[in-house]
Amino acid sequence: MMTRIKDLGWELFHIFFRHFNFPCKLGLINVGTPGENSPVFLSGNYTLTVQRVLRKLRGIDCYLLVANSRGSNVWCAAGMNEFSEYDVIDAINVANLGNLVKHRRIIAPVYSAPGVDISAVKRETGFNIKWGPTHLDDLPRFIAAGFKRTNDMFQVKFGLQDRLEQAVSTAWCYTMTIALIGLVWPIFFFTVSGLIFFVYLFGFTLYPLFPEERHWRRTLTITALLTTAMALWALWSGWATADFLLWEGVLVAVCLLMAMDCCGSTPLHKSTIKHWLLNGDYNSHFSPVIDPSLCINCVQCILVCPCDVFAARRDAENTVVVVKPDRCEECLACFKQCPTDAIFNRSGEVKGDVKSIPNLEVLAARDWSHLKSEDRWIGAATGLRGGLPIVLEGRTTNAPTVPPRRAASESAATSLIEIGQ
Length: 421
Description:
- This protein is an alpha/beta fold.
- The chain contains 16 helices and 13 strands.
């Protein structure tokens, strides 16, 4: 019982402080009794992630290679150039992995794709990086399927547990920033802190039920609902008008704070506060388009994209095209992994928080006017062939693309694709 309580306390501590870096020991971890043919999984050295990966791997004889992500999660670290091919190469060499296993495959988290040059890892170590499922919860199913991903394992996910953890950790950070108020005005501090936690838990728990953020619809809906609830409470409790206006002002401020956080605090959106203020949405700055004359059909952009932005042509030509640019969340994994710089940017802008791509601003600002004919693929009908999303060229349509945050078609969920195909 005490062990369970201790484990629960450890988990809660790291959830509340998940915005802080907590590095763990680097190196190779034996899970079960691995041998020379056992699979090798890759992780950064963020303590919470490593422990969760180990729990998912329980009962599997394998290796977990912990590389240096500076104690941060791999997505943030990869974007900030703090988890790169050099860290993976160092981890492989220090662990003497080449002499421990016969195969040359490492299964890596796909969220590390914005930072890791897989060709450099192959060139320096002989190991191929293969991408695992997007969400950790799918890891056991991925293993059971013979290390193959179904199409739903490609997709970004933001489930209830993810949303709750994001809500409490972010609310806790803001509560700590106003902690000094508690020394001189404790009642106000605890009331504001409680309001912050309530707003964040309300907004993130019920996230799928609110409208998409277009023209501030989500923010206005949440604010209106909470304002109505506060007004009813004020009437029932007999608040003075001045008290209601004070707390209404605090409520609106917290709702705005949460709305601005959503520009980058979820795995669904990557925009800027400026863009949100001017446009009222979380749409990505980046809008990819592929030059067919440069595309070599490596399909890496498809394999690393968590939003089904790309699809392959397999009829008249073997190239990849962009079918849902409005779903792009600007992780820029496709930009990093494209070996020929075939991906251009319609908008000419990037958020600028991905530091792992050399000359990013120059590449993203290249003239794409010669590719305007490629817009014909936007909204094209797609299906699956061999697990890859394929353009159904006989049934292309100008219908609107799937709304940016809708899950992929359930019909895709049963098709398998060998990772790193």
